[in-house]
Amino acid sequence: MLFENQLNLTIKAFFFNSETDYLPYYKNFSFDVDKNMLIKEILFMIKEKNQMFAYPEEDLIFRVNNLVVTGEEKISEIVNKLGTELKIDPALEYRSNNGLIINNHDFMHQYRRVFERHNASKEDLAYYLTLYPVHYASETFNYNREYIGDAILLLAAKMVNDGHHAIEEILTDISDEFNGICCCEYENNVFNGEDYTQTIENLKKMIRAKKNKLSIADKMKRTCLNKMRKPIEVETLEGANIALYIGDNKEAKLIHIAETKKTISDIGKLIEFDMATKRAGQSLMNRYPSIAHQKAAKMMLQAFDNGAEVLVFAKDEDLIIFEKEIALIENKVGREINLALISLSQFKELSKIPA
To answer: Does domain 105-207 have CATH number 1.10.600?
Structure first.
């Protein structure tokens, strides 16, 4: 029996030891806990159950349901936002040496590489150290492991705003054609973390990053593939499996989500997927199409592999982008993505809901 301040948590915890394991694996745990406990205390409880579980004693960060936490968050806050079924992973899985212990040498390596020659101050370094969780929460690492990291961009923005004497050199250093700001599509993946979207967008405007335009060969490939890839027509939504892509459309999040999801459930089946509220390469299509197509494919394949037949876009501009790029997106992953793509207004028309 649970007492008033207790919660029952179902935990799926990450295990991996680079010296003994070929692949990572998960083990399941169930705990009755006091809701005022800190989430890091769960790690100790897992360790008591299984000595193979490992986590760092210092610089503790890890992921809970794909959001980076420091361990100081209360379980009550975690549960309020994420529920009682929690998946615990390292901050970046591919950097795991042993469980949640990661190789974090890149964090200071990037700082030294970009800023030490520009005489960054002690204050600048102190600020950068506070961005440790932000660095490993960088969405772009999922698509480019050599990316410099969001923390580097934020420190650059601070130094520029502070009027540093080497502004042009700093902007040049973060503008690497392959691994710099040009491949950043920022997402706030830190639990209760500050949102730096506008800071990074302002930095991009300063840099005016060179567009990585499609080559003539790629343009010809797009034309040929688009001719082969015919749009999937939708005559009715009745009984269909329908996914809703919201992306960064904050207006849709506030106004349309609940009513649209209810309508989907009334006429068919609502298909949920993780990237429904995440950016999927829209801002990178002209500047970094390789990553843009990876992100777009990941989003669409999540919906498709979860059983969706129709993908509704809450934002018309997103639909236009993905309809234009669908052939190259499919080509990037070597798979057909047999989804009908429609706008929110088309959905309302097909479902007989007044626009």
So the answer is: no
